[in-house]
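User: Need the bound-state model for uracil:
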Amino acid sequence: MTVAVALDAPDDFEGWRDAARRLLMAGVSPDMASWRVKGDAGDLFADGDALPDPAPGAPVPRVSAKFLQLAKSALLHTEIERFSLLYGLLFRLQDNPRLMDDATDPAVRRIEQLARTVRRDIHKMRAFVRFREVVEPDGSERFVSWFEPEHHILRANASFFVRRFTQMHWSILTPQGAIHWDGTTLCEGPPARKEDAPAGDPVEALWGKYYASIFNPARLKVGAMLKEMPRKYWKNMPEAALIPGLVAGAQAREARMIEAGASATPGELQPETLEVVAKAIQACRRCPIGCNGTRAVAGEGPKSAVLMIVGEQPGDHEEQQGRPFIGPAGQLLRSHLNDTEIDLNGTYVTNAVKHFKFSPRGKARLHQTPTAGEIDHCRWWLESERALVRPRLVVALGASAARGLLGKTVSVQKERGQPRLLEDGSELWITTHPSYLLRLQDEARSVEEQRFADDLRRVSERRTDLTR
Ligand code: URA
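Assistant: Bound-state model below.
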């Protein structure tokens, strides 16, 4: 007999996962399970069947992290068959745990494709939501946006907008539902119509200015741009009207951009990729360290890193090899990260200052601490990296790194142990620099290393919480 499963909502991943687990343990094959969403058009029955009890001695279902990750995205697709496709794959995974690695399997490929489409829709929403300002009856301001997602991504995207616009009161209205944020609480509302959102207002001028400033002429490829920003989104995007003019002025702006990166003139054109940052810092002459003829060292790590670790500046080894944290301090850092199970390959590692400041002593080059002014000049680059990577956790190793992140000097000893919220919603954890630990001896060294390990453990736990 077929078991009918009714999920609470089209994006009800937890409901699907619980039901799938129960079905597996009861030995229900994919063709004997039917899936639907409560209240969907044509759904005459509010509830599904009671889920069957597990067969005696049934093994606990196995599921790989890769499957779970894909399933979470694929389930948000509007494809009606997605629940049963996922259950079918999960069912087969029980006998073939390596199935997810089989890139030729049609079901694996289909789920991967659904997940990709959903991730793209999520990205589009993040890029193309445009707020208009309205004044509420009590005189307060609220920013309201109308957006038409293709898939069921509204809830999945909510925390991104909360982090990005924490201080604002805002609403995002869509044909599938609405989300509202009042600075502390997120709540949901019913489906909306385009007319429910306000039409153009002065915020559009702001978006236009913002867009004009982030528009990167160096990467101008009209075909690629249209692919990234399909015309169907243009109608809700006031800045779209600026595109023809920006394209026309692109070459002149490209020249200005290179100048802005190299000079101390605060340029409004921030690099658009980490690769551009890595190239542009080589030409940076914003402060005296940039003029000392050394090689600048760029950050390293995945663009999707949840955690960013910021040191002070590259040292002798780092400058020679062009990579951050590969000398003695880097080795100590790596061994502590290893102990706390922070995966360095999944972490973005960089420095507050991109060039090596030193004084020559014979053949040796002795480290010199950068001044506050030098750190401040280099903030432009660090902020570009943060804006591109958008880590949720940032660790500052030592006072220079903390200044690079905060723009002011703070006491490491007073700050360590608890996080500070940065303006983009990420958390900053400040601790000591491993070079400081290397200079200590005996008892003092073991006490301070323990404190350093404790700080990293807190970060590691927080990282687990945030990515759970
Ligand atoms: N110290 C730092 O702060 N950064 C490095 O990259 C190496 C040593």
